[in-house]
Design a protein that fits this description.
The structure holds 2 protein chains of 2 kinds.
Chain A: H1 5-35, H2 40-72, H3 86-93, H4 95-127, H5 132-140, H6 147-157, H7 170-177, H8 191-216, H9 221-229, H10 234-245, H11 247-262, H12 266-271, H13 281-290, H14 296-326
Chain B: H1 6-33, H2 37-42, E1 52-59, E2 67-69, E3 72-78, E4 87-92, E5 101-102, E6 106-108, E7 114-117, E8 122-127, E9 137-144, H3 151-159, H4 162-193, H5 199-208, H6 215-232, H7 239-263, H8 267-275, H9 280-309, H10 312-317, H11 327-337, H12 342-362, H13 364-373
Helix pairs in contact in B: 1-12, 3-12, 4-7, 4-9, 7-9, 9-13, 11-12
The chains are: A mainly alpha, B alpha+beta.
């Protein structure tokens, strides 16, 4: 039988926070009206009531862990003894980690580029075709589903049966129908990374598509008309008007997808768990968190690596976001 | 209508090409989840409308069903338990030669038992001795018509534990989306409309923390959770624990988005309320809250889907036991343990996609708005 008791905790959990805000403010209101005027220390108290829960969460879940991770990266696997930069030295020598870094780099080059390119092309096509909205919906749909779900979908496509058997994976069925040997795609080192990346491109193209679609509407109609009158071909219009105009948007999309890719974890864990040379940083970190009882030192170094990769791109993203807000 | 040109035809074809490539994976998964599991294992989903030839092993009834006629023992029955509409082509009595006999032709087992098998699965076993308790093995080659069934869903939901995982995921995702919304809306309000000591520093700190990937928090948080668990004498991993973890990881981005939204509201409105003697709490409830519903909806959907689809946090902060495991973790576990059982995997994946797809198709506007705005989520 299904156990629905977890859903009861849900109500209690949410109620707890609603009650906190309601009753603390309610009493403060009572006190204020009794005194007849708002005192400044009450204002500070009010601010404290508003801010406290978020602040506590912020300190426990973000501030402290960041400092602690930094500290732990200089300690042994149990976080007890100081080992200096040993974990970092390990990181630079470990072949598995080097593999992971290289793969991450590959992901960073291939996925954002192709997703952005496909998104741009599809947005352009869909904008001019009457059934474009439906097409956009379909291509955007993978954004809604989980990486693991997408992993299952694609693992089914990559499925491999021996050469004599009937292939139930679409890719091998196509390969066989052209008279080639079926392949166990996700076990072929180096190339298998591309097959994992395909999943991510399949998902992220939708994001690029909707953002481009919105941006395309911002291109002045007159400019496009003028190009047409001047006899520019559609390709020419695309490369010399649309692409330059969308320049900032391309950058935004590229940064967003890059950040997702830097932290890519679910797809690799579900598809190969880093076997056959598909290791990536985030998966390796997860692995070290639990490998041999967990190694908090090495895990922390890996977490720091991920953060160092994310910082500049995220900073660029936030800067862009704030700039847009100003306009 | 535009006039028909070669280039517009090419554009249409190219777009169609993309659409087909994008839809096929999901479509194949969906069709497969509805197919009979035996057919699914031996033929591609694109053949699901064709009649397929299958080889199967059945077992006849045993001595329980036997009838004695004169000095012969008979067993009559049908090898198909359900009305599967299969048509038998040929059959055999040993694994070495599974196509030995045509239908209606009389076959002989090693022990002398005779069998006659008909196209629809009816059979007659005849023997001069009494039958053994266990039935005879019959190897059957038959044509199986296309068959779609919900059996896989029944199996996966109730026997493989996906149903419970579905409830667990709801129990994780609902509070993990509502709690940050509640506490961040007050937080963002205070950061936007209240003057208190250290406000600007705090705001800068929150925005700066957007760059921190959640991986940075995992190891220290896990050890805090373990400590709390051992002090309180309870398990380290629990629902409230995972809610708070998601709240923590969503805090910076939710606050950032809400503050951007609140800042865009007219200042005069807040000040007018103040002059009328409304407390900040009144202002929040009566003025801000009604205006923020669309923004809240977008952020809620974004965070809800993010949590629903999350794997990492669910793996680290929940025990991988039936009463706590979430869908994505369960699916990942099945990928490892039931990697060849595609009827379970495809169905499981589709179940995990139901809620996101439902939200996607019914609330697409909020979904897109949230996603585009939520690109700052770390």
């Amino acid at each position: 039988m299904l156990d629905i008791s977890p859903l009861l905790y849900v109500c209690l959990g949410i109620l707890f926070f609603l009650c906190y805000f309601h009753f603390s403010n309610f009493f403060l209101d009572k006190i204020d009206t009794k005194k007849g005027k708002i005192k400044s220390h009450n204002l500070n108290l009010r601010a404290f009531i508003f801010v406290a829960p978020a602040l506590i969460v912020f300190v426990i879940f973000i501030i402290y862990p960041v400092l602690e991770t930094f500290r732990l990266s200089f300690y042994d696997k149990y976080g007890r003894d100081f080992v200096g930069i040993n974990n970092y030295l390990w990181a630079f020598k470990d072949p598995e980690l080097r593999r992971g870094l290289l793969n991450n780099l590959g992901w960073l080059i291939v996925v954002p580029t192709l997703s952005t390119a496909f998104g741009l092309i599809i947005a352009n096509l869909a904008d001019r075709i009457w059934w474009g909205t439906i097409a956009k919906s379909i291509i955007f749909m993978p954004m809604a589903i989980s990486f693991v779900g997408a992993g299952v979908i694609w693992k089914f496509i990559y499925d491999y049966r021996g050469p004599g058997d009937e292939q139930i994976g679409l890719l091998n069925a196509i390969v066989v129908s052209f008279g080639y040997e079926p392949q166990a795609w996700i076990t072929i080192p180096i190339w298998n990374n591309l097959f994992l990346m395909a999943i991510m491109i399949w998902i992220q193209t939708g994001l690029a598509l909707v953002i481009f679609s919105a941006a395309l509407r911002g291109i002045p109609k007159e400019t496009l008309e003028a190009a047409k009158i001047d006899g520019a071909s559609e390709f020419k219009t695309f490369t010399s008007i649309i692409v330059p105009y969308l320049g900032p948007t391309i950058l935004v999309i590229w940064t967003i997808i890059t950040i997702v890719v830097l932290k890519i974890f679910d797809i690799v864990l579900a598809m190969t768990n880093g076997q056959w040379q598909t290791e990536v940083l985030a998966n390796l970190m997860f692995d070290w968190m639990f490998r041999g009882g967990g190694d908090s030192g090495r895990g922390s170094v890996l977490a720091l690596f991920i953060m160092i990769g994310v910082i500049p791109i995220m900073a660029l993203n936030i800067y862009k976001h704030k700039q847009e807000q100003k306009i | 209508m535009k006039k028909f040109t070669l280039s517009s035809l090419l554009s249409q074809l190219l777009l169609l090409f993309f659409v087909v490539i994008w839809i096929i994976p999901t479509f194949g998964l969906f069709i497969s989840s509805l197919r009979d599991k035996d057919l699914l294992a031996i033929s591609g989903w694109w053949t699901s409308l064709k009649t397929t030839q299958v080889n199967e092993i059945y077992r006849s009834e045993g001595s329980k069903e036997q009838i004695q006629e004169n000095d012969l023992f008979l067993i009559k029955g049908n090898i198909f338990e359900d009305d599967s509409n299969k048509k038998i082509l040929s059959y055999g009595v040993t694994s070495k030669n599974i196509n030995e006999f045509d239908i209606e032709q009389v076959g002989v087992f090693k022990d002398g038992t005779k069998i006659q098998l008909f196209e629809n699965g009816n059979y007659i076993l005849t023997s001069s001795k009494e039958f053994k308790k266990k039935g005879k093995r019959i190897f059957v080659t038959s044509l199986s018509p296309p068959k779609f069934t919900l059996d896989n869903y029944r199996e996966v939901l109730f026997n493989e534990g996906l149903g419970q995982a579905f409830i667990n995921t709801l129990a994780v995702a609902i509070p993990s989306a509502i709690i940050p919304l509640v506490i961040c809306s007050f937080f963002a309000y205070a950061l936007t409309w209240m003057n208190f000591f250290g406000r600007d520093t705090l705001l800068a700190l929150v925005i700066a923390s957007l760059v921190v990937p959640l991986q940075m928090s995992l190891i220290p948080l896990l050890s805090i959770y373990n400590d709390i668990g051992s002090i309180m004498g309870v398990g380290a991993k629990s629902y409230p624990g995972v809610w708070m973890a998601h709240t923590g990881f969503g805090l910076a981005s939710t606050t950032f988005l809400l503050r951007n939204f609140l800042k865009s509201l007219p200042k005069e409105m807040i000040e007018a309320a103040k002059v009328d003697g409304a407390s900040h709490y009144d202002t929040f409830l009566r003025i801000i809250l009604p205006l923020s519903i669309p923004a809240f909806a977008s952020i809620f959907i974004l965070q809800f889907l993010w949590v629903w689809n999350d794997l990492l946090v669910g793996l680290v902060f929940l025990d991988q036991v039936p009463s706590e495991i979430i869908l994505s973790a369960k699916l990942r576990e099945l990928l490892g343990s039931r990697g060849e059982n595609w009827e379970i995997l495809t169905t499981g994946a589709f179940i995990s996609m139901t809620i996101p797809l439902l939200i996607f198709f019914s609330l697409q506007k909020y979904f897109i708005r949230g996603l585009v705005a939520g690109s700052v989520k770390g």
